[in-house]
Amino acid sequence: MQYAIVTGSSRGLGEAIAEQMIEKNVNIIAVSRSENEKLKKKAEERKVDYFHVSCDLSDSSQLDEGLDRIMDIAFNEDTHYVYLVNNAGVIEPIDTIGNLDADAVQKHIQVNLTAPVLIINRLIKEANQKEIRTFVINITSGAAERSVHGWSTYSTTKAAINRFTETLALEQEGNGHKVLAYSPGVIDTDMQGEIRSSSAEQFAEVDKFKQLKEEGKLRSPEEVAAVLMDLINQPDDIENGKVYKLYDLVEKQ
Ligand SMILES: NC(=O)c1ccc[n+]([C@@H]2O[C@H](COP(=O)([O-])OP(=O)(O)OC[C@H]3O[C@@H](n4cnc5c(N)ncnc54)[C@H](OP(=O)(O)O)[C@@H]3O)[C@@H](O)[C@H]2O)c1
To answer: Does 121 have pLDDT greater than 70?
Structure first.
């Protein structure tokens, strides 16, 4: 049996990835604070197992408990392959340094960085003990590679996840795991709505992002997920540890 652990599957990109995993007949372990009835129904129709692990990833005790539950489900006696998609993410706080809300910074780092690091840490331990192969996909952002006014925390956590992805690939070379980071471009999700609602003092590029929406330049989560699925469906071609960018992948098509 194959399982896909998908964090942030309640909406946006995570929902689209989980949906397309179900279409691939992969059993789903959905991790988020809110449940997604549409995914549950789709899994039932396709006769695919679907588990929702309700977990606030910004809360370390909920993450600990959630991790036990996720690993119990993912590594059972019939498991032969496990995907992990670290997709859950937050953009807030959007503000300049000096004006950052301390609580929002801590929650941000916990969701965007600490949680994926700890989930991967447990996954690799369990998988190597049980000799099960995994495919780790970390959702990153172009902001990892450039400094963006107002996005210091976001750029920092995404840059860190890129480095963690490379280090994981380096350490696990020869163990049969696949690992990559996926930079999905701009997607029409709630996160973009939050970005557009910032003030120009908080985020200097706000008008550019409003314009992208007005000009219909945001991709749908389904399209962005499909590009990722095409990539992971050719595992032998994957360069472990690499940051794959949607823009490069669609250019090749
Ligand atoms: N949208 C873009 O243009 C864009 C561009 C580049 C990269 N990305 C990346 O793509 C990924 C998905 O973004 P999106 O645009 O789909 O975002 P979104 O629509 O805002 O959805 C975020 C998801 O993360 C989950 N999440 C947030 N906080 C959480 C918490 N404390 N605990 C558990 N789950 C939490 C949410 O679930 P609940 O609220 O139910 O908990 C939701 O399912 C993120 O990593 C983001 O950084 C997005």
So the answer is: yes
